[in-house]
Amino acid sequence: MSDGNAEEASSPGLPSGLSPGRRAADIAKLTSGQLDLLIVGGGVVGAGCALDAITRGLSVGLVEAEDWASGTSSRSTKLVHGGLRYLQMLDFRLVHEALRERDLLLGHLAPHLVHPVPVLYPLRRVALERAYVGLGVGLYDVLGRSMRHSRRLPRHKHLSKDGALRVAPGLRAQALVGAVEYYDGQVDDARFTLELVRTAVSRGAVAQNRLKVVGFVRERGRVVGAIVADRETSQEHEVRAKVVVLATGAWTEETEALAGEERGALVRPSKGVHLVLPKSSIRSSVGLILRTEKSVLFALPWGEHWVVGTTDTDWPYDKGQPLATGADIEYLLSELNSVLEHPVQRADVEAVYAGLRPLVAGVGVVRGPGEMGPLDELPKLKAPSKISREHAVSSPLPGLVVVSGGKLTTYRVMAAGTVDAAVASAGLGDAPKSRTGSEPLLGARGFCALWQQRHALSRSERVDLPTLERLLRRYGGLVTELLEIMKVDESLAAPLEGAEGYLRAEVVYAVTHEGARHIDDVLIRRTRAAMESRRLALASAPAAADLLAPLLGWDSVTKQAELDAYRQRAELEMAASLAETDEEAAALLAGARARQVHW
Ligand code: FAD
User: Fold this and answer.
1) Distance CA 437, CA 107 (A)
2) Contact indicator for 283, 167 with CB cutoff of 8 Å
3) Could you tell me if 506 and 500 are in contact, meaning their C-beta atoms sit under 8 angstroms apart?
4) Given pLDDT bands bounded at 50, 70 and 90, which one contains residue 480?
5) Whose CA is nearest to atom 41 of ligand 1?
6) Which CATH number does 3-71+191-264+364-438 carry?
7) Rounded to a whole number, what is the largest CA-CA distance in the chain?
8) pLDDT tens sequence across 332-358
9) Per-domain residue ranges for the chain?
């Protein structure tokens, strides 16, 4: 699977499992003494910062208000990519940096979670478009091939119309005159973020979800810690740190305001919607990238499904629950259907999800501690798709560092710059530079050997080969922990009732090792059952709840409340998908919140 050298990495030193049993001890650790860094926000950027800082030898706490990756980091297009369309914006530096990261992730840091995906660019006009696209994709290959850890993604290929229809027979013959095929990386974004957290914990970071920062502790003008509210017990705690890092993505403005700082709209949340379709709905062995009037549209193979997206529109409403409307769905279907022989119907859509891009305008800025000042004014007149995906690091107050923007692919670069700024702010000048480029994620360790041995392992563990391969691609070397659970209780080796693509053991493991505390943690982010099919997820919720209840100490009333909350959220999403406008969808959400529907 990989020619990287993840195997050579040292084994983890501390237990990495995020079991419910360690919560009290972790909170005690967070609240006693002073940390070097407290990181707020458990998306890919906050998790990346935690790993960066702990591997520099700093003491680190990481708190997340909801669940790991519950914000934008579970709702992306799932590409680890240079961003072909940034070449069009002539942003070579951004593309080069992202391709370097893609290469590291594919070959070294997470070969179990990041896989090559072929993508077809159908050409609609003769000659000129082929030359233009070919040049761009060629440059993409050249930039990508200069990388040290290269996993040798195949080079791009020019295809005739017949050649393109052979790999993608579902395309309408009149919709193209030829095509260019190229490769990028694909990742399970939520599992990737979770593994970053676990890797940081294995190195000594203290990380807990369901801890929301509700205020800051300030002494003589400096931020010296934060007040965190435990969402499970409603208790508040004070966590002290030499520097607090905000990695709260679309919530940057709100969290910064807790420190009494009002810099205005630093981050402009832009809604991106994806549809999930069954594999049979598009006859193609490769993904598709289509030019749209505003941007591009991807249709990417994802297990037994297709992920199709995305949109790019402002979302000035409740950030906790961006909603896809009927208009979003119709737009995506009409763009996709413009190239398909057999149009996909609305009834074919299995699931829909929406996320918020944390777009910033004042990019690449690192300001010194106390050098407060507004970042460049947001280009409010620009469409969101025209705003750069670069990131910003700033220090609006002594003791407070804020990172926002960027994209999943470049989380490591963002984390390194952020921790550099935090080290400067905290006066930890002798801390070493970032080392995460040579720090494979936990599941990367042992993965290549297990992949080579998978046939023997399948026989010895009595797990059929396709299932074992799927588990290896989700858990990497950590699969041995899952197999252990199945050995102790054989009933857990059975499929999860209602979502048979997953095993019952995966639900148990989500709690005992992966910090899941609620049904949606398990069905949306640990497994992706709810992302793959709304219907399956609803059908599997009771079985999942039965497995979760004893592990999380739920009585029958709590279990029913958890099931109700899960169902109400699914119902809200379904109602919103019939709404025509964002305003209507936001009103439905406000109504649900007013009825105190909680999820
Ligand atoms: P988030 O993941 O949103 O994390 C912020 C976290 O902060 C949240 O979990 C939130 O709960 C927490 N938080 C907020 N307030 C508090 C508080 N008070 N206390 C504690 N915690 C708090 N990038 C790519 O590289 N490839 C792609 O294919 C791609 N596709 C995308 C498609 C879409 C539609 C979108 C929206 C984005 C896409 N991106 C992609 C970008 C990428 O997903 C984001 O840049 C990235 O996930 C942002 O991570 P983050 O950690 O900054 O934010």
Assistant:
1) 11
2) no
3) no
4) very high
5) 407
6) 3.50.50.60
7) 71
8) 999 999 999 999 999 999 999 999 998
9) 3-71+191-264+364-438, 74-188+269-357, 447-594
The Cα–Cα gap between 243 and 422 comes to 6
Question: Residue whose CA is closest, atom 5 of ligand 1?
Answer: 248
**Can you name the CATH fold of 74-188+269-357?**
D-Amino Acid Oxidase; Chain A, domain 2 (3.30.9)
- Joined together, the tokens standing for residue 299 give 């249709």
Nearest atom of ligand 1 to the alpha carbon of 98: 25
Question: What is the CA(22)–ligand 1 centre distance, in A?
Answer: 26
Beta-carbon count within 10 A of 25 CB: 10
Structure-token match 């079985």, residue found? 543
Which residues, 6 or more positions from 530, have their beta carbon under 8 angstroms from its beta carbon? 351, 520, 523, 524, 536, 537, 570
Ligand 1: centre distance to CA 41 (Å): 9
Average the pLDDT over each of 3-7, 313-317, 437-441, 445-449 and give the range with the smallest value: 3-7
- CB of 405 shorter than 6 A to ligand 1: no
Using the mean position of ligand 1's atoms as its centre, give its distance from the Cα of residue 357 in Å. 7
Beta strands in 188-286 (DSSP E): 206-208, 211-219, 222-230, 236-246, 267-278
Q: Which of 319, 407, 410 to mutate to test the pocket of ligand 1 (most atoms within 8 A of CB)?
A: 407
pLDDT of residue 389: 57
Q: Is the CB of 281 under 6 A from ligand 1?
A: no
Distance (Å, rounded) from C-alpha 230 to C-alpha 59? 21
Respond yes or no on whether the N-terminal peptide bond of residue 581 is cis (omega within 30° of 0).
no
Report the predicted TM-score, pTM, of the whole model to 2 decimal places.
0.93
